[in-house]
Amino acid sequence: MRLGLTGIRKTAGRAQAGAAQGGRAEPASAGFAFGFLCRFGLAAVAASAGLAGCDSGAPAVAADVGASAQHAPANPLVVASAAQALKVAAREAAPDGGQTRAQVYESVRKMTALGKQLFFDPSLSGSGKLACASCHSPDHGFAPANALSVQLGGNDMHRTGMRAAPTLKYLQAVPAFAEHYHESDDEGDESVDAGPTGGLTWDGRVDRGGDQARIPLLSSFEMGSSPAKVTAAIKAAPYAADFRAAFGEHILDSDDATFKAVLQALETFEQTPGLFYPYSSKYDAYLAGKAQLSRAELHGLQLFNDEKKGNCASCHISQRSRDGAPPQFSDFGLIAIGVPRNRALAVNRDPRFYDLGACGPERTDLKGRAEFCGIFRTPTLRNVALKKSFFHNGIYHSLEEVLHFYAERDTNPGKFYPVVKGKVQKFDDLPKRYWANLNTEPPFDRKPGDQPALDEAEIKDMVAFLNTLTDGYKAGH
Ligand code: HEC
Ligand code: HEC
Fold first, then answer.
1. Ligand nearest to the CA of 463
2. Which of 19, 237, 285, 311 is deepest in the core (most CB within 10 A)?
3. Do 376 and 345 fall into the same domain?
4. Ligand 2, atom 41, residue with closest C-alpha
5. Where are the annotated segments for Disordered (predicted)?
6. What total of structural domains would you count in the chain?
7. Which numbered ligand comes closest to the C-alpha of 388?
């Protein structure tokens, strides 16, 4: 539960919220398949199919698509694209010369295949050594395979940024960034302001996968590439012919057009349901009545949900939404929980430097807006057990450490923050003038000497529960 910028928010109903775009495990539904066309940059495909512009007409069409969109989409882009899906369906034979549904699917299929090649191709980087997959390993929920707090990159492969690489799974459900988020699923009360919500990256600074992919490709401490380098790499790649076939014979003549196409293909690949949002964890099987949780796992789940114990589900939603969409284990809210400064990071050698999340320095549009300082987007906890570094600065390396932080941040702060001359430097990564932004709801509602919200045995069971969120569960394991 986030204490919004607008004051205390209603506490009931949040456990129902969060599946903004659904992400229902029914990839074949028209609303679902086409939902991502617009949201994830297939504007070009949608346009060439003779569809209306992706961003247009959302409110007007919301009513007629309600029934077939299957899950009340909170995102206007999704509403728009659901409407378009219907239009496409209604025009199967394409009498007016637009693309048929089959042709649209074929374009998506081609683009997905190309996106996959690009995702794994280190030749797109300046060093020739770094692919998207180097930091986002498919075997680790598309998070890093190693336990470094921040990954190595740049032309010499020795440079580092300030943030841990997140999982790329379940991002389809992240709504576009909004300073004031009103969710349609919140007990039907859209007047509830959930505060800043959504957007990609830890600070929510971009909304679409393509805009996001631009960041690591061009960043001097990540892939350190350029449109020209990317184009040269693709010309020399085994998939050059496929790239031309998908984007046009002359696409590689223009660096800018090629770069745009690359971003679009990556974005499309990241929307492959079976890879990125399979909903195949033990917990999903449990929700579907097809698996039982062990006693420890079940106890962990209870503690996770219990408002007086973990209270985790108030931000990391664990229940299906009212329309039955599976939980995303995030409400996508941006919130400050006072993660300690990671003194191992190169950027933090400068005592004046702070990564303040939404108010900068990586994000620039909310600069100087004090109420946005120190807030980071709540990550999904699906596949979190596959991660080896946790929180935006990668400071912790095990779930036990994270759980201890939640349980004892306020009861025993000296365990997490530096102690100088006997005095605990609490919230050492957030200047004092922003402390009003810090969350103080359970388990963060205590003071030194109080009983921690969770004891050792409870933490153990919660870790057991978090392990049920890993995709790829097979009955009998
Ligand atoms: C050097 C490591 C590295 C490489 C290479 C890299 N990323 Fe990332 N990725 C990160 C980090 C770190 C973040 C978080 C950035 C932030 O919050 O500012 C991130 C964030 C993301 C996100 C947003 C996730 C979220 O939770 O919102 C997406 C999507 C993504 N990367 C896709 C890609 C793609 C596509 C490529 C290849 C073009 C790529 N990444 C290459 C490290 C990397
Ligand atoms: C007030 C909202 C809120 C509550 C309550 C909350 N979290 Fe979080 N959680 C966050 C935010 C925000 C982050 C990212 C913080 C950052 O990196 O600065 C996070 C990060 C995490 C991470 C790290 C994930 C990663 O990919 O690095 C784990 C694990 C986690 N939370 C588990 C829990 C558990 C377990 C509980 C209950 C004990 C809990 N959270 C309660 C908001 C919350």
1. 2
2. 19
3. yes
4. 312
5. 181-207
6. 3
7. 2
Phi and psi for 440 in degrees, rounded to 5? -130, 20
- pLDDT grade, residue 272 (50/70/90)? very high
Query: How far is the centre of ligand 1, averaged over its atoms, from the C-alpha of 214 (Å)?
Result: 10
Nearby residues of 70 by Cβ (< 8 Å), 6 or more positions away: 22, 24, 26, 29, 31, 32, 323
Domain around 121? 105-172+197-276
Buried b (16+ CB within 10 A) or exposed e, 275-308: bbbbbebbbbbbbeeebebeebbbbbbebbbbee
Q: Which residue has the least CA distance to atom 37 on ligand 2?
A: 312
Range 358-380 average pLDDT: 97
**What's the CA-to-centroid distance between 249 and ligand 2, angstroms?**
47
314 CA closest ligand 2 atom index: 5
Q: In which residue are the tokens 């103080």 written?
A: 440
State which of 225, 253, 276 marks the end of a domain: 276
- For residue 177, pLDDT beyond 50: yes
Q: Are 375 and 384 in contact (CB under 8 A)?
A: no
Among the bound ligands, name the one nearest to the CA of residue 126. 1
Ligand 2 nearest atom to the CA of residue 2, by list position: 1
Whether residue 262 is found in the same domain as residue 350: no
Q: What is the CATH number of the domain that holds 214?
A: 1.10.760.10
Q: What is the pTM of this model?
A: 0.86
Q: What are the tens digits of pLDDT across the range 339-352?
A: 999 999 999 999 99
Ligand 2 centroid distance, CA of 344 (Å): 21
Distance 140 CA to ligand 2 centre (A): 19
Domain end, chosen from 276, 310, 336, is at 276
Asked if the structure places residue 9 within a domain, the reply is: no
